[in-house]
Amino acid sequence: MPQVDFYILPSADPLARLDFACKLTEKAWRMGHRIYLHCSDAAQRDELDARLWRFKGESFVPHGHAESEPESLVVLGLGDNCGDHHDLLVNLDLKVPAFAQAFARVAEVVVEDPAIRQAARESFRFYREQGYPLQDHRLQRL
Question: Which domain, by its residues, includes 61?
């Protein structure tokens, strides 16, 4: 059963979720983990893809799309198949993916946007009812 971490960001900008996902992914990747970034749609995945290349001037996180480069340590995916990635799931969708239980850790990134906060509450309730260990991290600044 995965540890589920909710990262509460002090921003209402939905794009702040992607920036934080880049930072979290870089840290996990440098530690040698395989990361699956679950996106809600192709537009979000394209934006995240671009941000992973440029979020830090001195480095980038090598990554690929789950469908075309499933062997990459960091993949951006859509749909119901996480492939062979089971270390860290960064969920950027508004619902818990069916494969979440296959991961050692799950990260839910939350901003102050009302729709995202409501979805996070529902996800929290789901995880709690399933007995997942939960932790929230209220970040002061990005």
Answer: 3-138
